[in-house]
Each structure stands twice: as C-alpha cells, then as structure tokens.
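Hi Q.,

Before the meeting this afternoon, I wanted you to have the iron/sulfur cluster prediction in hand. No need to reply - just skim if you have a minute. The sequence and ligand are here:
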Amino acid sequence: MQIKKAKTQGFCFGVAITLKKAEETVASHESVTTLGHIVHNPQMVASFEEKGLRNAHSVDEVEGGTLFVRAHGLPVEVFEKAAQKGMTIVDATCPMVTKIHVQAEKLRADGYKIVVVGDPNHPEVKGTLSHVPGAWSIQTPEDIDALPRASKVGVVVQSTWSGAGFTEIVQKLSSKYYEVRAVNTICTDTHNRQSEAAQLAKEVEVMVVVGGKTSANTKHLADLAATQGARSYHIEGPEELQPQWFENVRVAGLMSGASTPGWLVDQVEAQMEALSRRAS
Ligand code: SF4
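Predicted structure with the ligand bound:
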C-alpha cells in the first residue's frame, strides 16, 4: 500500500508558539492554570500536566497564581476577572485569532452589524463574540433566515471553519442584506490543510486524519475528505487503526490537524505500513 502524506503536517505556527510559551511559563511561574486543555491532543496534555500545568473549567475555580491563555484566546470578561483576582496573565492567544478580534471591532466601529460565523460553544468564538457585544452568531445558511433586518452587515469567521461553508453563508447574506462586508478570517494554516485534504482525497481510497476528537479543524478535514469520495477515519493515535480499513487498498492518505505533533503522525504512518505489510 502506498501512503500519501499531506504536505502540511504537525503543529500550525499558532500552536507551536503557544506550546513554546507554555514550556517557558511552567518553568518560570508558580501554579500555572489554563482554562481548557492546552491543545486538542491527549498526549501533549498529559505531558504538560506532568510539568505542573493545571486545567480548570472557569476562572472562578482558580485562586491566584498564573493564568495561561492558550491559542484560542479567552473572552474579555475572563481577562478582567483574572486581573481582579490579582492573577498574573500570560497571553498566548494565536496572532491569527487576535486578528479576528481586531477585524470585528473595526467593522463595528464602521457601523456594520457584526455576524460571527462559527460554533458559538467553541472557546475561540466565545472570545470573538466578547469583543463585539450584540453580534449575531450563526453556523449555517439556514440560520440567516432568522436574522433581523440591518442596513449593513460585517462578517468574520472562526479561524478553523470550512472555507466552502463560509462562502455559502456570505452568498446567502448578500442576497438578504444591501451591504455585506465579509473578512475571510480562516487562518492560512487551516486554508492550506483544507486545500490539501480536498486534493489528496481524490488521489486515495482511504484517508486517515490524526487529531484530537474535540479539534474542530481535524473534524472538518475528515468531513472534507469524505465529501471528496475517500473513506475517511478521524483517529487520535496509531492504536485506533483497524487492519480491515486497509484491506485491498492500494493508496491511502495521511494528514493531521493543527494541534497534532509531527511525531504522532510518524507513529501512525509506521503503524499503517505495518498493517499493510501484514495484509500482503
Ligand atoms: S489553527 Fe490557525 S488560528 Fe488556530 S492556532 Fe493554528 S494558526 Fe492559529
């Protein structure tokens, strides 16, 4: 079996920066907490826990110490609450996420009613919404039907959203509102991985996508590969690979989400090769 790997593998630059900052922070600060796991990758989470990084659901659960803000960012009010509690804040929000906040604020200052496309329960989107209070949050073209009137709307999108889904939404908004100003804030890394997934899925029979089950960008990649005709599997590690997935398969694809370490992709590749050898 031939294994075709996507060109873009391993951590995106935003996650790489965050992890480097987190390493430095746990080494130099007392009692460091993140709200939510540091990345969508169980192996990395365990390794940081060993180094003393704590995880909490809410800033209300934490007393003092250091709040480490991961790549997704945090809502404005959480920063404020942590500051009121006297916590040290180390902000490792990905620059591409900060750019979304800035774009949304600019559009609002220019008089646009803000529409944020993305999952309202995703931490990044919660952060973006906090920068533009009163913004409308939507996920599908159907959600547009329920939106009220406005003279002009400004649109931003979750950094890891599907490019095709965003285009569809902007087209529908344009048929409802007189003026629509859309800023495509899907980050470059996500865009590249989605393009590669769409292309690679046409060349392979089976696609394996490695990444945390809660990772939005990994899930989108697996879905995208499936819509292009490849049998698609979203796994977190090599132990999940099943021999029957590769029976009579000549070409398989392998790619990863933005928060998957390169060494884990290598382990999955090695296991795919071993399963293929066993089957032949
Ligand atoms: S996926 Fe994009 S926005 Fe998210 S951390 Fe990586 S580079 Fe930043």
